Fold:
Amino acid sequence: MKKTSKLLAILCALMLMAASLTACSGEGKTKDTGSTPEKKTEETNTDKKKEDTSDSASEDVDEVDEIYFLNFKPEIAEVYNQISADYEAETGIKVKVVTAASGTYEQTLKSEVAKSDPPTIFQINGPVGYEAWKDYCLDLKDTDFYSYLSDKSLAVTSGDGVYGIPYVVEGYGIIYNNAIMEKYFALEDKATDVTSMDQVNNFATLKSVVEDMTAHADDLGIKGVFASTSLGAGEQWRWQTHLANMPLFYEFKDNTAYDNSVLAGLAADEIQFTYADNFRNIFDLYTNNSSTQKGLLGSKSVNDSMAEFALGQAAMVQNGNWAWSQINDVAGNVVAAEDIKFLPIYTGVSGEEKQGLCVGTENYFAINSKVSPAKQQASIEFLEWLFSSEKGKDYVTNQLGFIAPFTTFNDDEKPTDPLAREVLTWMEKDVESVAWTFAAFPSEEFKNYFGDALLEYVQDSKTWDDVVTIVKDSWKSERAK
Structure:
């Protein structure tokens, strides 16, 4: 009955519009807003009745009682169903949640947007996803949802517009044990004048501290400053992907023809490896001040490295916030949660004092620009509720398990593990996060060539110039495939 009433109201409105145009001979042009035009003649009782009918039809057309969210992650579909039920009970607006099967999101999205009732909220995979779906992405720069974002540089932008907003992030950098660092700062015979990790904000300072700590390894009770640089087969990803991200982020960032480093990387048939020496700076610092001799690094795994850190044998280790469980679960772990901190990966790039952690995600919300303005606004309001209301934030942190990059979360509403909290803390500092540019790497094989070359470099069977040549040649050959 509701649909029938709505249809009759719309038909009446259309008939009135035709009558109005005939009576006024085209006088009184209107914008296409979905509402019926008003007559510019003196109202009579009959005209008043017609106007009332028209207004009611307009309100009916603009009324939103349902929005549609196409979910990317099957493992959290049930949580979104609970969220939908709570939101409908609170606001009267139903959130229709449809979840794509694992690995089928793009295919499902293509199918769903072609329907008469398409998704109003969907997800894009960063800048790459935006290029595929930019005709469907609404500009969100003037929304409260965007204003909540703690690090605006993480949003997917084009020109002055904001088209994708990350809702869950991860970060990586150099994890350090602050208890060991404080022990070093208290040494009476240390060679540096650094007294706090707050002063370590560039490579030169980091290098001076690390090398002096190596000289005082026995005093500090450590085997090495850095845990083992794992270079065994299948264990190189921290270097050939995560550390390799650093020089290529800066190289592609220099290409001002693109809005972001990922798109610049995807367009690069060749690379210059401009910041190769910066990569070498930090890589050599890792291996020269390690808990394991260089000749043995080819047999070391990531688990070995994390265990060394957890057992207090090393003061620092490169990894991401996901490493908390690896540290915490090690039998005999001696690192207190309050002593686990993050430091950006400094490599000697000019201006790196303003550099933050490597922060990224593959999960961005977008609003369908093809649906009605009323549905767009209702969809935005749902996301704002989810990430700013007490009930919504409880779902985000405790059931969805997100590190949500928004300023709306108080300290007691954030994840409890120390590394997740460190990521959020760094995102709120006056620094620029390093984008996950490795999404633009041409293939897994390219990364493997890179990692294998690093092992041979450490073993002295290849020079650094050899490594540079392999990286440049393998990028070109893999991109050409």
Residues 2-24 form the longest helix (23 residues). The chain has two domains: 66-169+361-409, 171-359+435-480. The longest strand covers residues 170-177.
